[in-house]
Design brief:
This protein is of the alpha+beta class. It has a single domain, classed as Alpha-Beta Plaits (2-Layer Sandwich). Helices cover about 35% and strands about 30% of the residues. It contains four helices and four strands; from the N terminus they run βαββαααβ. It has a four-stranded antiparallel sheet with strand order 2-3-1-4. Strand 2 and strand 3 form a beta hairpin.
């Protein structure tokens, strides 16, 4: 299994909207893509930072999702990020 981890600071006052957008728009679309295995959306209201961890069955599935133009258009950083967006890719070494 593989994970894409994306983090950024949301515009002031927009953190809850960022989470809602992921739940209502981005993740339902992602769930229809091949290899989607689930996601975690983390939010820190003190720092206004958010982290999304999206799980994929294979590295190829994860990279294909990254190349999907519609999926990328729906990603919340385009609307909600205040500054730099960090993206990293990982192999899941252990899951319980």
């Amino acid at each position: 299994m593989y994970a894409k981890v994306r983090s950024f600071r949301a515009h002031s006052g927009w953190l809850d909207e960022r989470v809602k957008h992921s739940i209502d728009v981005a993740l339902p679309f992602a769930s229809q893509l091949p290899g989607y295995k689930g996601a975690l959306i983390l939010a820190n209201h003190e720092t206004n930072r958010t982290v999304a961890v999206v799980l994929w069955e294979t590295e190829a599935d994860m990279l294909a999702a990254e190349r999907n133009e519609e999926y990328q258009r729906l990603m919340p950083q385009h609307q909600f990020a205040a500054g730099e967006v960090h993206t990293e890719y990982f192999e899941v070494a252990h899951q319980e």
